[in-house]
Specification:
Blueprint lengths: L9 H22 L18 H15 L3 E5 L6 E9 L5 H6 L13 E12 L4 E13 L5 E7 L6 H13 L6 E2 L17 H5 L5 H5 L9 E5 L3
Parallel strand pairs: 4-6
Antiparallel strand pairs: 1-2, 2-3, 3-4, 4-5, 5-7
Length: about 230
Amino acid sequence: MGGCTNCKGKAGCDDHKGVMLGEVDETLARLYPTRTWGEVDEPFGAGLASDDLANLADELASELRAATFVRAGDDDEACDFIYVLCMGRAPCAVQVRDHGVAPPDEWQATEGISELYLRLVVAQRAPLAVCQQVAVDVRRADDGGYVIRESPRAGVYDAPLLSRMQKLVAILPAYGLTHVDFGDIAHAPPDFDPGVWRERFGGAPSIANYLFFAQPQTMITQTLVSPA
């Protein structure tokens, strides 16, 4: 997101950001006593319960006037996701990919479609959340199926999404969640050891990789949906 150097509310924002970054530092110290990626001191029940996650998705759908879809994190993701459909229409690619919805007939009559989402990432180990802008493209595969390509960005940048993101962030405290700006956790934490992350992905993991998911935050993924 853009800078706010000349904003009249900058002092209050800086105070809030200081509190947020302090919570991030405390969470890192608690989860990683050895300061090494992959060596996690797992807490019990620190994340958002599944019912609360579903309720949050429902409230976001109502307040943002957009369809929302929950995806549970896999074994490599210490987080859960709520996708907010901002550009596109249902049935959408996320429904087809994650929820067993059949590809709509209109997909057969086009070379491809493009959709835009807000992706809320909710940590399972701590009451923290971040928001990303995600583009999802659908293209025909050679076997008659479809390739669904997801391209996340390290934050939210496009103007049509910013107002919805502001509303989204305002709802999170009611669920006990602290919103973290992606720009503040996109770097490696000082004096931490990357552990096996370097062998898997190269380089050093960012703070986001310690708190939310293993993969680089802008890593593109592709899913093949069969014709059947």
